[in-house]
Design brief:
Number of strands: 7
Mean pLDDT: 81
Number of domains: 2
CATH topology of the largest domain: Alpha-D-Glucose-1,6-Bisphosphate, Chain A, domain 4
CATH class of the largest domain: Alpha Beta
Order of helices and strands: HHHHHEHEEEEEEHHH
Shape: elongated
CATH superfamily of the largest domain: START domain
């Protein structure tokens, strides 16, 4: 028994050490990605000279684009609890870099010796990216870590649970206060079809079904097979203390397209579900309490405008 405990203890210690090495390597690659990206954005001409590529306008534009990609990847690696997706994104970027360097190698206008050295350096970094991405992906799979994200939001609305439940149950009205939704239509007693905006001007669609419906108390749902965005969740309607309205609790699990990479890109573009849900619930509260969504001057006028309308001149 004691030998088994010692073996388990030793195994756990080795696992922790391995995880620590993976984390340190991932963090190192993250900081390297940010540093390289900043150099490419701030001094693309100098970077072009170092890697032996002719300094031209289109070269600088391309290097700045690559730099923004590197910065985004570095931020993703350093800020996400499961950075494997971002590391695989770096691997894809490495392949693009190697293709660009291979094209530069064939041009007589470039310093081929420097291009060759840059290519060797990128190959070395690519090997590290692949190794670290594989190790982190394997660790996530072994530890049973989910590849989905969870969102949980709460808001209090000065209306009864019966009123709030009845309005929420009207799914086809969701686009009125959920700005990212383009359409929701009923396809059956407990099923509906959803169409939403996605990053990059795209749209995503899915079919969903209600899995639990407790009038004035709870609505639970899940997406069906073939959904562009797999999601599930529940909304609870609880009477607030002292009869002060209804506490609405929304919990949602979703799997973003492209995994962790998709989640971070959506967050960078302000289209991540957690960010959306905050705004959606505030607009829903306004509809329930005042009958419409309040609009500020900024949402009515385009471009620069006065904070207050000018006073009318007195009639002559």
């Amino acid at each position: 028994m004691r030998m088994q405990q010692e073996w388990q203890s030793g195994t756990s210690e080795r696992t922790q050490q391995a995880n620590g090495k993976q984390e340190r390597l991932a963090n190192g690659l993250g900081w390297f990605s940010i540093a390289l990206g900043l150099a490419e954005v701030a001094a693309p001409g100098r970077v072009a000279e170092l890697i032996g590529i002719r300094d031209e306008d289109h070269t600088r534009s391309l290097l700045r684009f690559y730099g923004m990609r590197e910065i985004a990847a570095g931020v993703g690696i350093l800020t996400q609890p499961q950075p494997a997706g971002w590391l695989w994104g770096r691997v894809a970027g490495d392949m693009l870099d190697l293709a660009s360097l291979g094209s530069a190698m064939r041009s007589e206008d470039n310093d081929t010796s420097r291009v060759a050295m840059a290519t060797a350096a990128v190959l070395g970094v690519t090997a590290l990216d692949v190794m670290c991405a594989q190790q982190l992906s394997q660790a996530a799979s072994t530890n049973g870590q989910p590849d989905s994200s969870r969102v949980s939001k709460t808001i209090t609305i000065n209306r009864s649970p019966e009123e709030v439940y009845q309005r929420w149950r009207q799914f086809d009205s969701f686009p009125q206060f959920m700005s990212h939704l383009e359409e929701v239509r009923s396809t059956g007693d407990r099923r509906s079809h959803w169409k939403a905006k996605a990053p990059g001007g795209r749209t995503v669609e899915w079919d969903a079904e209600i899995t639990d419906d407790q009038p004035n108390s709870l609505i639970a749902w899940r997406s069906l097979e073939g959904a562009d965005v797999q999601n599930s969740g529940r909304v609870r309607f609880e009477r607030a203390p002292g009869g002060r309205g209804t506490i609405v609790r929304v919990e949602m699990d979703y799997k973003p397209p492209a995994g962790a990479t998709g989640a971070m890109l959506a967050k960078l573009f302000g289209e991540e579900p957690g960010q959306q849900l905050d705004d959606d619930l505030r607009r829903f509260k306004q509809i329930m309490e005042v009958g419409e969504i309040a609009k500020s001057d900024a949402s009515i006028h385009s471009g620069m405008h006065a904070a207050q309308p000018p006073e009318q001149a007195p009639a002559m």
